[in-house]
Amino acid sequence: MTTNKTGLEALLTPEESVLLLIDHQAFQFANLHSHEPTMVINNVVGLAKTAKAFNVPTILTTVLEERGGKLLQPLQDVFPEQKPINRTTLNSWEDQRVVEAVEATGRKKLVIAGLYTEICVAFPAIHALADGYDVYVVTDASGGVTTEAHERAVQRMVQAGVVPITWTAVGAEWQRDWARTESAAAWGAAGMEHGGGGAVAFAWEMQLLNTPVPDETAPAGA
Q1: Architecture field, domain 7-173
Q2: What is the pLDDT of residues 113-146, one digit of tens each?
Q3: pTM for this one?
Q4: Of 65, 138, 155, 169, which has the fewest beta carbons less than 10 angstroms from its beta carbon?
Q5: Per its record, what are the GO molecular function terms (predicted)?
């Protein structure tokens, strides 16, 4: 277990990261009570777009898709060509297809978000630690059936060595320096669309300065 590092090695980089998004499906959202559901949707789609901006491999999973519903369309739209791994296991790390998909990336910093925090996030997060991964859980792109369930799950994972993080912090660690213009434009566009009050304030500032808002369709660095 290497997650307890400090200093620069404790921070995420795009080159070392792989993102695993677990069970953001209609049925799961129906019993989400730790967060306002539209906030989790906003955050996970923003996280997915951020991963795409930094070319971070992203693995999508569902559970019992034929009953619980397909992956949310706004999330699927970020990766339109990718078919989610549809599991039966509560612990996605017990599905060899998921493990092999992560292993195939060759990356050891595993970033996870999903529903529910207390089950389908906590189980693989704790399990993957034992396989030598540094595990980061994006708490505001995840959620539980109650606030207590979510909070106890985060507490349990932290005790095991998982690092809790928010989706905007993930992007900030991947960017690290605004001089990295190849990713700044695409990440900025995701932030403008999903960044909440800060994004609205920035758009207003751009309006006052008569400067166009970044276009997510523009080439990186444009």
Answers
A1: 3-Layer(aba) Sandwich (3.40)
A2: 999 999 999 999 999 999 999 999 999 999 999 9
A3: 0.88
A4: 155
A5: hydrolase activity
